[in-house]
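One thing: mind reviewing this one?
=====
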Amino acid sequence: MRLLRAARGRGRGPGAGPGPCRRPPPLAALSEALRLERSRRSGSALVFPLQGLARCLLPGAEAAAPGLFQPDLAALRSAERLFAAGPGHAVAYLSSAVRMEHAPPPALPEVCFIGRSNVGKSSLIRALFALSPAVEVRVSKTPGHTKKMNFFKVGKYFTLVDMPGYGYRAPEDFVEMVEAYLQKRQNLKRTFLLVDGVVGLQKTDHIAVEMLEEFGIPYVMVLTKIDRASKGLLLKNVLGIQEFVKEKTQGCFPQPFLVSSVEFSGIHLLRCFIAHVTGNLPTVEDS
């Protein structure tokens, strides 16, 4: 099976562990993001960056097509509460594993994050958990930092898995580790495939898509580092991915999610989608 064999010999590093408590960045909170949007009159660019991009570059275009994920404010706030640790609600690093027999029991709905080395995966996960600053997700400037599957538990609601990256410096047993997880993890509800928003889909990303399609895994694409891309370049990459998803995939959610771990653009929406696909937002329509 070729799948990710072409990506072998490259990846990302031991991603997590408990650490000192930090103060959450202001924009990690939905209320602060909304306040900044109002002050800048920037529409919904922080919370809904895809719609903001469409309005900016394609005047008169519809903000969203029917059937896409557009939660209301109440749903966004409900999701935010899930990611914020508090009394009786622990958000914490759970464990790491290199083999499925070492993974925690599949007791809760689960999502996993996978992507090329240096795509910004650990930075994104740290931004998602920014409202629970005691959760430390280690981020390295050196590609290939995550070498194990790192599991995080969000109360009694779901678990999130940071997978090793494919491409540069992936662990030697990367293929066996990831394929075994994707095929055997019966509580896996959605895989988040991260794509660099500056460079768009690469050859190794296409191989990852082939693997997910072959296994029949439902997945969604997330464009990272959108703060580093010009609006024109970002639009080009978004349109290219949307066309690719429409023509070449069956298991991919049609709406890409745009995020910046630096500016917190799209983070609140992505939290909400995670809450939804793990069954924790029953009022939002199925996706």
About this structure: Residues 1-19, 60-64 have pLDDT under 50 and may be disordered. Helices lie at 30-40, 49-57, 73-83, 121-128, 174-184, 203-215, 231-248, 267-277.
